[in-house]
Write a structure and sequence with these properties.
Elements (H helix, E strand, L loop, with lengths): L1 E3 L4 E5 L5 H10 L11 H8 L3 H11 E8 L6 E6 L2 H9 L5 H35 L8 H13 L1 E2 L3 H4 L5 H12 L4 E4 L6 E4 L4 H19 L7 E5 L31 E7 L5 E7 L16 H12 L6
Antiparallel strand pairs: 1-2, 2-3, 3-4, 5-7, 6-7, 8-10, 9-10
The structure holds zinc ion.
The site of zinc ion has 8 residues, from helix 5.
Length: 317
């Protein structure tokens, strides 16, 4: 038994189909050229069935063939469909015969592979370019250390939603700058919430070298031991009472002076003829290793050396 639709759709019923099945199949496949008149849910409901019971009845008693002409080779061919959804989606698609469709899929796959390869090569070029141009050099020591940690970890759980919050602004911007410069490429791992980093194989070694160079430069910038601070204490000529200082003035040093915690210093104040005073502060380690707190409590030989040092006129100015 056959029923032809005005278009190229054909519904075939099983021979000797019983009346109830025929009714079901006709209702299910009743198509007005744009949509099906009934949804399977309604038909199942009318029979008090579940959807699962309806499908076998349809399959056993009917087959729907859509006849088409291939848009590519113009060959006629028929496609069998089993459900309203399959039917509708096939109508929406352009029709291609199975062999042309296979050819198109192969072409698409071929294009997809080539495109993936092109993107990969472009990315590698970008990552190599960052190394050739030594782009990490525009980042400071702390930023380079962070970059090294990122690429050493190779993988990181990054919550980009969290990074949008203002308090993570700096971290977010830094990550973006690394990416913008092509130093790293951050991508989401398939089937994981983690992100991985892609970078040039030459990057790690170069950053390590740069970090150690920056560290050396930084340590050079901190002046090493200073040997003596000395300057004149100018008498405060406008002093009115004991609440104003005896000596006051400004002093400017010619070099950085860093007094490390725990550095014991010897200080001395000398009277000068013009009523000014002269102050010196000298790290004890520059004179002798001494542990006592004041000169009078130092052991005799050290006390002598320290006093001699303080009394040495060449030492002043
Ligand atoms: Zn074809």
């Amino acid at each position: 038994m056959e029923e032809n639709y005005p278009n190229n759709y054909e519904i075939k019923f099983k021979d000797n189909i019983d009346e109830r099945s025929l009714d079901i199949v006709k209702r299910y496949w009743s198509f007005d050229g744009a949509e099906f008149k009934e949804r399977p849910g309604q038909i199942s409901k009318d029979f008090g069935w579940t959807h699962n019971k309806l499908i076998p009845v349809l399959r056993e008693n009917s087959a729907v063939l859509i006849s088409s002409t291939c848009l590519h080779c113009e060959m006629s061919f028929a496609t069998q469909v089993y459900s309203q959804n399959e039917f509708l989606s096939l109508l929406k698609d352009s029709f291609l015969c199975p062999s042309c469709d296979l050819l198109l899929q192969e072409k698409k796959e071929d294009f997809r592979i080539k495109e993936a390869q092109r993107i990969k090569e472009q990315l590698n070029l970008q990552l190599e370019n960052a190394v050739n141009k030594r782009l990490w050099e525009q980042f400071n020591l702390a930023e380079n250390v962070l970059l090294l940690k990122l690429i050493e970890s190779n993988e990181l759980k990054i919550d980009f939603e969290k990074l949008k919050k203002p308090r993570f602004k700096e971290e977010k911007e830094l990550l973006e700058r690394f990416t913008d410069q092509g130093l790293i490429f951050c991508f989401k791992k398939p089937n994981s919430s983690n992100y991985s980093f892609k970078f040039s194989n030459r990057l790690k070694h170069n950053i390590e070298k740069h970090i150690s160079k920056l560290k050396k430069e930084t340590s050079k910038k901190i002046p090493k031991d200073w040997s003596r601070i000395s300057f004149k204490l100018l008498r405060n000529k406008t002093r009115k009472d004991k609440n104003t200082p005896l000596f006051s003035g400004t002093v400017e040093f010619k070099q950085d002076i860093v007094i490390k915690a725990g550095t014991k210093c010897l200080y001395g104040v000398w009277s000068r003829e013009d009523e000014n005073q002269w102050l010196t502060i000298t790290p004890v380690s520059d004179i002798i290793v001494a542990k006592n707190k004041t000169i009078e409590y130092e052991a005799e030989p050290i006390r002598t050396i320290l006093k001699r040092f303080l009394n040495n006129q060449d030492f002043i100015e």
